[in-house]
Amino acid sequence: MNFFDAIGSAALGSRLRRLNDLMTSQAAEVYALYQVPFEPRWFPVFYTVASEPGRHVGDIAERIGQTHAAVSQVVKDLAKHQLVKVQRGKTDQRRSVVTLTEKGAALWPALQQQTADVQQATEALLAETRHNLWLALEETEYALSRQSLAGRVKAIRNQRMTNEVQLLAYEPAYQSDFKRLNIEWIERYFRVEEADLKALDYPEEYILDKGGYILLAQHHGQIVGACALLKMDASTYELAKMAVSPTAQGLGIGFQLGQAAIAQARALGAQRLYLESNTKLKPAINLYHKLGFQKTVADQPSPYERCNIQMELLLQP
Fold first, then answer.
1. DSSP 52
2. CA 40, CA 178: separation in Å to the nearest integer?
3. Each residue's pLDDT expressed in tens, for the chain with a length of 317 residues
4. 165-169 and 272-277 strand pairing
5. CATH classification for the domain delimited by 161-314, as one of 3.40.630.30, 3.40.50.261, 2.40.10.270, 3.30.930.10
6. Contact 56, 71 (CB under 8 A)
7. Quick one: residue 221, left, alpha or beta (phi over 0 = left, psi -120 to 50 = alpha)?
8. The model scores a pTM over 0.90
């Protein structure tokens, strides 16, 4: 079994490079057949200059889908072989206009005939295959323009890693993790306040015994996320002490915890969820909006000096 059979579609890029190498080497044989002194990699640029004279390098790059630097290098090579010339534009001196030289113009008819023959041969080649590679390439390029390969891989990786996250109900053994995670983010942006320490040092007394609830997120055996529901009254709970370890960012843990907390609040009979935060914490604010929270104004001031925004989520019965 060769490499491509073993790896499969994960090696698509390498397989395309191999095909490109094969096509390029055989294209060189075609130019030799027509006795045209030409390098295959010049063709897109030369063809564009010959068929649409007066274009500048940026236009050519956009037209053929190559980088400005790559096109500039090819233009330099063509100029070195006296096939094109580069001049300053008449209307815009900052742009260099590329045109054919006499030598390039003399080569153009033979290259046109060669191109017509190559197109006929290529169409016959594609007709021999069950899948039309040209159409497949168009579809693939379109799909990649909609979402890059890196973006697709990231989504799959994140989903796999998200599936590895377990949500756990609080137990006394997790108190140190609950405190560690919250102290970590508070000290990064603000200062730890007395109200923080009460809930973090004594979660049973200040959260659970008062009808609240604590959730933790575990990933590969490590507690990497936490959040709490603090009972405010018979129908309202506060979403608080939301924390995710920096080592676990990007796994969607905050969203999982938030969704689980909302579900738990409903199970506890809540009709409203309330939270306090700071607009400096933009990822957290974005998360709360994603979960459905909207800005509100609290009836009473926050016990935390760092709080400058209150939000709420009204739960449907």
1. S
2. 63
3. 578 778 788 888 898 888 888 988 898 898 888 888 888 899 999 999 999 888 888 889 999 989 999 999 999 999 999 999 988 766 655 677 899 999 999 999 999 999 999 999 999 998 998 888 889 989 998 999 999 988 888 888 878 877 889 999 999 999 999 999 999 999 999 999 988 899 999 999 999 999 999 999 999 899 999 999 999 998 999 999 999 999 888 788 999 999 999 999 999 999 999 999 999 999 999 999 999 999 998 767 788 889 989 999 999 76
4. unpaired
5. 3.40.630.30
6. no
7. left
8. no
Determine the residue type at 103: K
Residue ranges of E strands in the chain: 84-88, 96-100, 165-169, 213-219, 222-231, 236-244, 272-277, 294-296, 309-314
